[in-house]
Protein: Probable C-mannosyltransferase DPY19L3 isoform X2
Amino acid sequence: MISIRQRKGIQTTEVSEDYVAQEENVKLENKLPSSCTNRRLWTILSFTIGGTVALCIGLLTSVYLATLHENDLWFSNIKKYIEPVYFYIYTLFGLQAIYVTALYITSWLLSGTWLSGLLAAFWYVTNRIDTTRVEFTIPLRENWALPFFAIQIAAITYFLRPNLQPLSHRLTLLAIFISTFLFSLTWQFNQFMMLMQALVLFILDSLDMLPAVKVTWLYGIQLTGLLLVCILQFFNSMILGSLLISFNLSVLIARKLQKNLKTGSFLNRLGKLLLHLFVVLCLTLFLNNIIKKILNLKSDEHIFKFLKAKFGFGATRDFDANLYLCEEAFGLLPFNTFERLSDTLLFYAYIFVLSITVIAALAVAFRNLSYSTNQQSMYKMGEYTIGLKPETAYNLIHTILFGFLALSTMRMKYLWTSHMCVFASFGLCSPEIWELLLKLIHLYNSKRICIMRYSIPILILLYLCYKFWPGMMDELSELREFYDPDTVELMNWINSNTPRKAVFAGSMQLLAGVKLCTGRTLTNHPHYEDSSLRERTKAVYQIYAKRAPEEVHALLRSFGTDYVILEDSICYERRHRRGCRLRDLLDIANGHMMDGPGENDPDLKLAGHPRFCEEIKRNLPPYTAYFTRVFQNKTFHVYKLSRNK
Structure:
């Protein structure tokens, strides 16, 4: 009886439990449409708010930087060459709005919340000294190029997401192509930056962390965009002989040559990978040399001489390479950069996120090399699974390679620091990062993840506002004025006393101002990626070397020069150390001993003539026969060239 009752009780309990479960399922099915609707509404609301914040923060940053520029120079007070200049300036600051918005979107795409985009934008502004220099160096080509580069990174980040719809796939490819093309068109260093990108793709593809088909698309877009720029720049030879074109072609060829690259055991795959790397490297050097020999290309020789000397593979006397070597912007990244980045907590957050993602990437790479290929990069560690999304993997290797570039060359830090803002903010707001960390320390809980990914970014935003808002307001209220009376006097004299078709020679920096302010014709301009223009610039710069007046006159007249402008700041330069002054670089290139106390290479000889820029001011007959001084102030000396010699 007892056993029967127990069985009946158990049966009754089971029946009642099944009934309750059925009731719950019915209730859940009834609530499901409502839940989906609420989720959809929440997604739309979040997207609307996030998009609005992105546009607002981009516009505010643009206005902020433009105001700083105006407050520093009082540009609106200049009375003359103003309307076209304003168009130029407003366009550039408008691109800054696009730049910040693109950084915001990239961080949002990676983390899944627009809060990370807001944090990235705040870090970009509060680290303005190290993230941009647009407000005081407007004409730099990088200021035009970097916004398009940021758009490209955002588009690639979205493109690498799995399971894109066909329309989204095509539109994203179009966005990548347009941004790549515009980036390449606007900056002379485009090929080197995209070579770094191609290396990122190559590394991740080799480790099976990106879909091979998508990587092929990106290689093709780089090639197509660069070749189109080559055509539009009247077949710029430097592009045709670029390492990027040779590298991308080599990777695509090596893929066809090596079959079953991603199969086999760990050691087998590692051996194949090393062989693949060797094949690609050899093919790249072979193709690059063949292209340069066939087309007789020498446009980028100075860059390789610069790199060779910079990294200690031998000194060079090449004038063009030494111009780069002697500029502080092409030196190593100063240590105080990290002090400034730490002051905003950016560097600490970046190292924290970088450490976790590197650990995850190493684990996933080891798993991929140990087992068969998988679209989803996952690694089993104990009871937990470590994963790394393709878009996260791309941005990780991107920030590492561009970090090394910035450390070696200070001018390139603006590519790294802006992405540093994106990467650090993404990590702090990413559920995957916090999930991995909390699992590693055995504190995993879904509520903890939610708390960490929202509370820490909000606290950092409050800290940034508290610490930097007063200083930003002080900057906006501080008014200065552009004051360079000698340059203004020179430009006014040129406008009033020279024919509009007159041809001027001088330093590249000054001639850019002459062109902008007076519209006169120039003998040379700073498009330094053309070998003939480099030779022309070196010839014009003989005005600061130890050359005879008749030699300088013949060189200048060969370019149709009517007037030459000499600058005391170059002739008597004190800014650079001995050996890096412009006159020293010219002496070394000409085989002459340098001025002043110090050692000279034993094969350098005494020049047969005094320094031209000094001696011409004495008005001696050998000089007055060829040059007549027509203008002089404390900074500049303008001489008219005789035509009958």
